# Entry
Amino acid sequence: MDLRPAPRAYPRIILGEKAVRGPVLMLAGIGLFGLLDANSKLLSSAGHEVWQVLLVRFAALLLVVLCARALIPGWGGALGTRFPRLHAARSLVMLGSAICFFQAFSLLPLAEGYLVFFTSPFLVLALSAWFLRERPPAVAWAWCAVGFAGVAIGLAPGLVGDAGPAGGTASPPLLGYLYALGGTCCYSAVFVLNRQLRTEPGIGRVLFWPSLLGFAVMLPLGLSQWSTPTALSLAQMVGNGLIVGAATVCLAEAFRHATASRLAPFGYSGLVWSLTWDFAFWGRIPLPAMLAGAAVVVFACIMSERAAARR
# Structure
């Protein structure tokens, strides 16, 4: 009779396995939103107004959904819903998030805007406890705090470097911080609403209603400030619609497979993605502090997932 203890079973983490599908989709969604920010920054530097960019974004996404349903009847599932108020709220906060972040980064240095934005995982935990009655474990708060520390380490050089010219103390306007805070609150609310809508199958309504509302609101504003874009700029605007559609689906699906408290720490992966896109688009080599902060963020995500696997 073999009396040796059985080998300890460790949780397997395999890409695509159902157990980790939520975190994988969350990482993909955050990465796509980072790509959206980078592409939007290119459009902004080319002189295009936010209203025009958002109009083409929502129009492209709406057109894709309608064309897909015309070519493949029933694609994406039913557009009707048992929760019209939740979908209306989700559409409104997604629109508010898009507008607020565009305006915030036109007034604030990137480092300061991102520091406000990265309070989102804490808001997600608080909102999930309040609205979803999901009691976030203490370890989730702890690893969110570690992730935020990593962000602070990575962004510290930018914050110090944003001081005004010699002899002056130029500071970003309060309105910029308010826009950043408003965008962060809206962004966090999207996560909680995604979790509330997790029982509805299909992605059609997840894409259709926000794009329809965004198109309706942006149509008069975008046309009033319309400037003829180049072929490249128009392709970038349309690309924004495709990117935001894919990101929206990833995040909505992530919250079907995992709780808000489990996914919240992965919000800090945005720092890693921002370094990736910054290097890919502008060839910027990250500073040592940025790399150190990114390492802390990755560590927090891994440890948070290990703690979730144990639970």
